[in-house]
Structure formats: C-alpha cells, structure tokens
C-alpha cells in the first residue's frame, strides 16, 4: 500500500473548514491593517498635488515665476519631463539662516569650478524653505548674489509639513537630482565620487562613458553617500545613550525596510531623473525616516543602488530632538512593515520609471556592444562579450547556434559490404556523427523529409545519383589483410596487418556533376584521425555516404558547434579593507588571478572575470559578510567552439542572420494578421 492510500479521504467538512480558515485569516489581516491605519495616518499624494504649480520666492515680492514640473500629463498618458540641465541640487532647509551660508558657499564654489572645466556641465540649486520663521529664504538669495551666481532658486512653503525634499525634487530640471542637507556635514567635493558610481550603474559593463554627461538618464538608479566607514569613530565620540539609539534605529531599518544599504540617513543622495520621478511621487513618510522609505521603494522596484563612502563631520544645530525624533523615526519605519505584509502598502504610481515614449530600436541596437576577448589561431574557438542586451536575447543567440545554424552531415549510408564485427546499424550511426568539412552556405536543404526506417521502411532500394546542389558523396572502401613486410617480432596490429585500424582519412570525396569545378575546395572530414572501426584479415567495408544540409533541431549531428555557452560577468565588491592574513585568505578563496594584494598588503579585485569559484569565500563567515558577490545582468561572456566546418566567428554571424530572418518573418506575419483584421 502506498503513502497516498494511507491518507484519510478529504471530506466536504474539511474543505469548508479550510475555506473558513482562509476567510478568517484575511479578515484579521484587513482589520489589523485598518486599525493600524486609523492610529497611524498614512499620507497620500494625489495627481493634482504632484502636478500643481510651484512658484519661486522673491525678496521684493515681485511677479511670480513658476517652476517647471518634473512630471507631466498628456491626455491619459503620464511621464516625466525632458531635462534641460545636467544637475539639480535640492537643499531642504528650515530655520537654517546660520548654517546655510557656509554650505551654499562650498556648494556653489565646487559647481562653478566644475562648470569652468566643462562648459557642458549645467546646474541649478533649489533651496526649499519649509516654513522657516527666520530669514532662511533671504539668506539663500543673498548668498547667491555674493557668489555672483544666478543658479540659485528658492521655493518657500507656507507651513512646515516636512515635505521639502519632495517639493524640491518636483521642481528639478536636471538629468541628475541630488538632495543634500543644509548643514554641510557632507563635503560637497565628494559629489564627483557619488556621480561616477551612479553613472556606472546605468552602463551594462559598469564603465564610465567617454562623455560622462552622455549617460542614460532614463535608467532608474540611486547612489547614496554613506558614513558606514566612520561608524567606529562616531561610536567612540557619542554618548552611550545616543549610540544605543543609533544602533536600535539601524536594526529597525534592517528589520522593517532596507537591507542593502548600511547608512540610509546620510543627507547626500543622487538620483537619475527617472528614479526620482518614480520614487518621490510615492513617498508617504514626511519627516526623518523618509530616506528609509525612498530606499525601501527602490529595493522593492529592484532599482540599482550604490553606497559610496563620503567625508562627513558633525555640525552643531541639528533639528533632531533626541529620543523624541528617534521614536518618531522608529514609528514611521514600523508603519511600513504591517502595510507591506497586509498587502495594503500603496506602491503603485501613474508615473513610469522609464520614458513611456515609443521604443527606439535603432537607439537600442546602437548601444549593443561586442568585444572579442580571445580567438584561437585556427578560428575554431572564440570568446567574446555581448554587452547591453537582456538575457532572452543572449539565450536566443545561444540556442540558434546550437539548433538553427545549418551544417552538412551524413544522412544516408548505402552499405554494400560489411564483414567487420560492428553491426550495420552501429557502423552507420558512427559514420553519421563524423563532422564534415564543407561550407553549408554552398548547398540547399533537401526537397523532402528523409523517411527513416522506423517511419515507413527504407525509402529507396538503389543508390541515387545525388543532387550536386544538395548532396555530397563520400566513399569508404577498405579491406584488411596481412602485411607481407611485417617484422617477425611485431605484435602491434598496425604492423601485422594493413588497414587494421580505419580512420576518417579513409573516406574519399566523389564529386557529383560539376562539383569538382564549382566548389573552391575539396570536401573532406574535419579531422583525419577519428577512429571509425577496427578490422582483422579478411574483413572489409564498402559504403557510399550521402551528405545533406540540416539543422541541429532535427538531429544533433547537424549542430555546427561543439559548445556554445555564456555566463554573466561576475562582480566582487569589498565592503571593508582586507590586510595581512585576512587578505591572503580572501585571495586563496578565489580562483587564481581574481584577487591581488598591493604593496601595502591590501587586497583588491584584480580581475573578476576569472572568477569561477567565488562561493568558497562563504566558508569564512567573518570575511564573507564584508564581500558582495553579484553579476552584471546585461554583460554576457560567450564561449563558442566550432566542430570545424566554419570558423566560430562565421557561425556567430550566421546565427545573427537566422535571428534577423525570424524577426522579419514575425513582423511580416503580424502585418498580414493586422491587415486581415482591418478588412
């Protein structure tokens, strides 16, 4: 009796019980979420709020100039607007008339120097006054005047609602949008490092483009300034109560919201325009924990996120009220968790992370990149990188190489004599797998499908003459006999007998029609030393083999490649510095050449491409937690080995032609179907 027979039968009462249980569970989740929402109000921004006009502040109270909006609506379609500048710096400020001047001076000084070096570097600074009761707005404009800068604009909010970052970002005009705290705790000169890491996220191979301003600003990515590397120093300087609260807050962030970023609260974050449009139109938390919600949403949408160490120092005058502000931040974090698990977290947005305009196939193809890494002297082995494509495209190329690119192979064997110990069927099967040195592009496919023995018997009784446009014929005629000149002491069958071992070089090409003059080469077997059969005196084989053009999807013998594989480019990131014994252990955990150690004894990633056994580092838990292993999702390392008829590079080109033909046929089919529906 099997296990299924031992199970009790499922009764109607049991089914009803399970249904009631699911309903009760759903009611509990809904009720708990509703109660929690009543106690903890959840801010919701509607489309009207996001698209409303916002006006620049002027000291003299003159005519108003409205800010251009990051978002736009055209009919029923929604999108983000085109950028008119390279960088927008958003500075939220509330009662910052004392700390803002120094920060603005450093900011404008850096940006103006950058502009002098590169005329294409255009920028703006948007100071968002969140209901200040001092002269923050006037101070900002006066500082800009002292710096002879006309790039500073002020957005003054009437009431302090803790939403200055969102309002400022909605007024930004740049491809990149940076929001930075008004206290100047983070050195603005670190912007360059954060900018480089963000732009690397937008490229498939993680490299910087020749013109750094020519990056894809429609790609959603986030770069976060981080103080995590200063954690030990900050703990040493802070009081024990602040240290406990800080560690507790980090635990709450990791538990309820963000797990890929160690420092979520550093006020130095850079977004591409598309990422900012999507994230800032969704945030619900308005005060101190809004950073964590932004990164939570970015993780939820699987945006690329980079954490970049920056120089940071404590500045007096913080608006955070000890204990109370931290409790408020903790409340906001906990607010996210039950809504997410009760499936009531609102992360739907009308505004797409990508530009919703028509997909430009020419632009897409222009970004595709192929790098030849290595090619053998005979051209049979090829390693190349396919960059800026998605996995389905890479897999299509691999499958076409295996199954769609045609080659020539022996299809019919007319066996006139076989007295070897190998059965006729086995011998014919071996012959069919011999790789043929013949260019399939010179031949046509068979007119009819070959009828196999299992499908209706042998399709002909006599050998046909063959078609010079569709066939190649090879003849095998060998017999084994004793070698009269054999030494008396010989024991090797090769010396004792003639034709004792038959290799692939025994096949002779028999031209059909004008093939001897039409073909610029003499077809043969790819290799001369493939063992076919062993004979003994008196045994012989006589056969004529007819080759046809075919595809690997019909039979493996037609596959033109021995191997066609790809893998993603590995990435290895160190979250800390490894020196001394730790550096040696890290180096030994990876394949040779992956990790290097510099003159100072510091481990560094030398060549991640060589990585084949990176999971070995997981054996050392104390090291593994400081190393991030990942792969570039659109960088594919291809390895192609030809069976010999064509060079590997030619096979790749032929595979691309097959894919192109399929796409054109599909396009034609769609056009015909649409035309039929329109009639």
From TrEMBL:
GO MF annotations in UniProt: DNA-directed RNA polymerase activity; protein dimerization activity
Main location: nucleus
Domain of life: Eukaryota
InterPro entries associated with the record: DNA-dir_RNA_pol_insert (IPR011262), DNA-dir_RNA_pol_RpoA/D/Rpb3 (IPR011263), DPG_synthase (IPR035518), Glyco_trans_2-like (IPR001173), Nucleotide-diphossugar_trans (IPR029044), RBP11-like (IPR036603), RNAP_Rpo3/Rpb3/RPAC1 (IPR022842), RNAPI/III_AC40 (IPR033901)
GO CC list: RNA polymerase I complex; RNA polymerase III complex
Cell compartments where the protein resides: Nucleus
Sections of the chain in a coiled coil: none
Domain DNA-directed RNA polymerase RpoA/D/Rpb3-type: start-end pairs: 381-669
Signal peptide as annotated in the record: none
One of the protein's GO biological processes: DNA-templated transcription
NCBIfam families (alphabetical): PRK00783.1
HAMAP family for the chain: RNApol_arch_Rpo3
Sequence similarity: Belongs to the archaeal Rpo3/eukaryotic RPB3 RNA polymerase subunit family.
Name the UniProt record assigns to this protein: DNA-directed RNA polymerases I and III subunit RPAC1
Organism: Enterobius vermicularis
